[in-house]
Amino acid sequence: MKKFQLGEFEEIVILAIAIHNGTAYSVSIKDEIESRLARTVSLGALHAALKRMEEKGYLKSYSGDSSDERAGRPKRYFEITALGKKAMVHAKETRDGMWKAIPKPTVNALAGTP
Q1: pLDDT tens digits for 42-89?
Q2: Residues linked to residue 77 through DSSP beta bridges, in sequence order
Q3: Which of 5, 17, 43, 104 is the most exposed place for a label (fewest CB within 10 A)?
């Protein structure tokens, strides 16, 4: 299922878009990631990932209304496509499968429980 694979940053970005449920634009995505993961995100890296995922067919974008606060420039909003949803499910199932494959004593040790 190589065609559905997401890189780690792509997975984080698409999850942030899903959290915003139709209202995601670059700054809101950046803020979501930074607040939830305590991780700095450069807008350049984010825009590159958004463009890459749009080219792969995982996302689609559209322009919103222009505003005076943005000097007349419209926000670019992002939505997850059906293919993007399949990629998300594949990523989750892959990670879940890896976690389930770890022997129970090791999982407990990782979680800090005896």
Answers
A1: 999 999 999 999 999 999 999 987 666 666 688 899 999 999 999 999
A2: 25, 62
A3: 104
Instruction: Give the DSSP H/E element, type plus range, for residue 59.
Output: strand 59-66
Handedness of CA 33, 15, 103, 101 (dihedral sign): negative
- Domain boundary assignment for the chain: 2-111
Q: Sort 112 into a burial class: Cβ within 10 Å, 0-12 / 13-18 / 19+.
A: exposed
Look at the block and give the residue holding tokens 């993007």: 84
CATH level 2 (architecture), domain 2-111:
Orthogonal Bundle (1.10)
Over residues 98-114, the pLDDT tens digits come to: 989 988 887 677 777 66
pTM of the model: 0.83
d(CA 39, CA 61): 25
